[in-house]
Specification:
Layout (H helix, E strand, L loop, with lengths): L2 H9 L3 H6 L2 E7 L2 E7 L13 H17 L5 E10 L7 E11 L3 E10 L4 E11 L3
Antiparallel strand pairs: 1-2, 2-4, 3-6, 4-5, 5-6
Length: 132
């Protein structure tokens, strides 16, 4: 079984992200994840833009995959999302990268764009490691 298959199997237990939101893990590596979400009507607000909560769910899930796959159990402590622009495409793509890995805490940045390259949001999440 590949790392991607293992990650999809394990994190498939996050039903809100995977079933309700439709988020898919596209790539996983050491302290890294790329996930995507097809934009459906259920993700949109009354104006047709992607709801901020849907965008944040994608960021939070991507952080969870990057910080927990083959790592100590990690939970988010603080997060900040900066909305940059509206998605023009039909899919959101989030890429989570480790910025700092401390003994008990970590910091990740998550860039979110659409498949056309439109930047949608920039997110930072700090995490606390619950086990070693």
């Amino acid at each position: 079984m590949t790392d991607l298959e293992k990650a999809r199997e394990f994190f498939g237990g996050d039903l809100y992200a995977t079933e309700t939101s439709g988020i898919v893990i596209d790539e996983v590596g050491e302290h890294y994840a790329r996930c995507s979400m097809e934009i459906k009507r259920k993700h949109q607000n009354a104006y047709g833009g992607v709801m901020g909560g849907a965008t944040f769910t994608l960021a939070d899930y991507t952080f969870a995959v990057a910080s927990n796959f083959n790592q100590p159990q990690t939970v988010s402590v603080t997060s900040q999302i900066n909305f940059i622009g509206m998605a023009k495409g039909k899919k959101l793509i989030a890429e989570s990268k480790l910025i700092k890995d401390g003994r008990s805490t970590c910091l990740y940045e998550i860039d979110i764009s659409d498949e056309l390259g439109t930047k949608v949001a920039f997110v930072t999440i700090s995490g606390m490691k619950l086990s070693k």
